């Protein structure tokens, strides 16, 4: 079975070259047509003017009552002698020839046209093509086709000793004009073809040069690897059309660099976190095996080992939880519950520890209904409250506030203590990030509690932020609420 792949789109360079060339060539051909049309119109106007002048002169000569027929014919010959390729045919009402120039007989077939009478009455100018011996237009021409522009008219004159009506046809050969227009058309077509090829070549070069900044950006991007993710493109050095592309690319590289950095740090941090309990287990086991131990001593070693195993289990569980969140597999249950009730449950759990550290737990708020997973929220509040208790001085108060704010439910956990420097606030939710790396890790969690909190809040389409000053540190959690 063959799968038909979609046709690959044409390149931008080819598209630009085609459309710009087509537009330019069409414009050039339009100009050529206009020029030919103008020349042809000019020739036609010139011929019509000559025909009308000849016709007026002919009628004036024929209507002269004092001149004999011979003198009139002589004047007619003299008047047409100054024009090139003029044919005159003068007929009586019965169609008999009263006067005919050398080419005059060639005009007689024009009388057989259906609209000849109308042309004769209005003295319109029309075209007529006749065959037969023709006066050469160019030296060496052997054409036997002659095309005339004809004016037909009628009148009354004294001819052959009596007053009678007549029909006069005056033809002006336009073969010279037609030959000129034909030669001009051929020359223009050849010139147009040559210019069109030149236009395509010039536009192709111009498009290629125009795409040079794009190729430079592409080459710069191609040279960025995992070894130099700190490289950035300079938006001010590219055309304005590519500026936003470069800015977007820089933002993307920043995110990728951040992911690579976190991944590298994660590998080191997880190795360090796992090494600590493993080292404790090995040390305790070696000490236990170094000499004979009583049953009570062996039980103490086993209990201590069990604590390390539980710590590793929690760490693995937390890492699996974050892995699910990273892969969008963290799908919380959707039930309606009162967040204030969950806060009070967490207070009950930490009440003994708070009394032991001489810290007061305080809750301010009212019932607030939200839709989500109560267990996940309880886990998030456990992590936040345990951090607050850990860093609150003895004799102080940890306050949890709950309120409705713009269709959201806002939960704030506030504790006094040493302020967190501003440069650390944005990184607190990173995995294994600690404000004081030299602090002993034992008993202080795995370092991913706040990352889990952020994953839970994000899974519920909420946001979390942290603020810290000389008065207190505040973790503020906001999630969509429901009307009570």
Helix content: 40-55%
- Series of secondary-structure elements, N-terminal to C-terminal: HHEEHEEEHHHHEHEEHEEHHEE
Low-confidence stretches: 132-143, 439-443
* SS content category: alpha+beta
Total strands:
12
Structure notes:
- By secondary structure, the chain is of the alpha+beta class.
- 52% of the residues lie in helices and 19% in strands.
- The chain has eleven helices and twelve strands.
- The protein has helices spanning 12-62, 69-81, 116-122, 175-210, 212-222, 240-289, 295-326, 339-356, 374-390, 422-425, 449-459, and strands at 86-91, 97-100, 125-131, 145-159, 162-173, 335-338, 360-365, 369-372, 397-405, 408-415, 463-468, 473-482.
- The strands form two sheets. Strands 6, 7, 8, 9, 10, 11 and 12 form a seven-stranded mixed beta sheet that branches. A five-stranded antiparallel beta sheet has the order 2-1-5-4-3.
- A hairpin with a 2-residue loop joins strand 4 and strand 5 (162-173).
- Helix 1 packs antiparallel against helix 2, helix 1 (12-62) packs antiparallel against helix 4 and helix 8 (339-356) packs parallel to helix 9 (374-390).
- The longest helix has 51 residues, at 12-62.
- The protein is rod-shaped.
């Amino acid at each position: 079975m063959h799968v038909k792949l979609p046709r690959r789109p044409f390149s931008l360079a080819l598209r630009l070259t085609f459309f710009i060339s087509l537009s330019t060539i069409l414009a050039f051909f339009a100009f050529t047509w206009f020029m030919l049309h103008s020349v042809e119109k000019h020739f036609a106007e010139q011929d019509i003017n000559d025909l009308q002048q000849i016709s007026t002169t002919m009628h004036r000569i024929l209507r002269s009552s004092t001149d004999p027929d011979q003198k009139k014919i002589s004047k007619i010959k003299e008047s047409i002698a100054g024009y090139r390729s003029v044919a005159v045919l003068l007929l009586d009402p019965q169609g008999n020839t009263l006067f005919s120039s050398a080419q005059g007989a060639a005009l007689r077939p024009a009388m057989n046209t259906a609209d000849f009478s109308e042309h004769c009455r209005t003295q319109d100018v029309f075209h007529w093509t006749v065959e037969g011996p023709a006066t050469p237009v160019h030296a060496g021409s052997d054409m036997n086709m002659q095309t005339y522009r004809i004016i037909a008219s009628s009148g009354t004159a004294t001819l052959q000793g009596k007053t009678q009506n007549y029909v006069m046809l005056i033809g002006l050969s336009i073969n010279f004009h037609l030959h000129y227009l034909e030669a001009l058309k051929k020359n223009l077509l050849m010139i147009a073809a040559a210019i069109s090829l030149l236009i395509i070549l010039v536009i192709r070069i111009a498009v290629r040069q125009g795409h040079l900044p794009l190729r430079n950006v592409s080459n710069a991007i191609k040279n960025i690897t995992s070894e130099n993710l700190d490289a950035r493109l300079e938006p001010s050095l590219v055309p304005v059309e590519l500026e936003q592309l470069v800015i977007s690319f820089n933002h993307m590289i920043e995110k990728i660099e951040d992911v690579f950095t976190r991944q590298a740090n994660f590998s080191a941090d997880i190795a360090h976190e796992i090494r600590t309990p493993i080292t404790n287990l090995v040390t305790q086991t070696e000490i236990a095996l170094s000499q004979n131990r009583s049953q009570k001593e062996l039980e103490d070693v086993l209990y201590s080992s069990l604590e390390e195993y539980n710590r590793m289990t929690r760490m693995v569980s937390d890492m699996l939880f974050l892995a699910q969140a990273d892969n969008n597999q963290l799908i919380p249950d959707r039930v309606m519950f009162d967040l204030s009730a969950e806060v009070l449950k967490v207070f009950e759990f930490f009440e003994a520890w708070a009394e032991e550290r001489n810290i007061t737990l305080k809750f301010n708020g009212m019932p607030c209904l939200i839709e989500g997973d109560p267990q996940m929220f309880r886990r998030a509040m456990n992590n936040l409250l345990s951090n607050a208790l850990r860093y609150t001085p003895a004799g102080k108060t940890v306050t949890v506030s709950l309120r409705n704010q713009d269709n959201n439910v806002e939960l704030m956990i506030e504790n006094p203590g040493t302020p967190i420097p501003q440069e650390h606030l944005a990184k607190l939710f990173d995995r294994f990030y600690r404000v004081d790396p030299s602090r002993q890790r034992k008993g202080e969690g795995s370092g991913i509690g706040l990352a889990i909190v952020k994953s839970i809040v994000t899974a519920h389409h909420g946001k979390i932020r942290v603020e810290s000053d000389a008065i207190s540190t505040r973790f503020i959690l906001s999630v969509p609420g429901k009307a009570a």
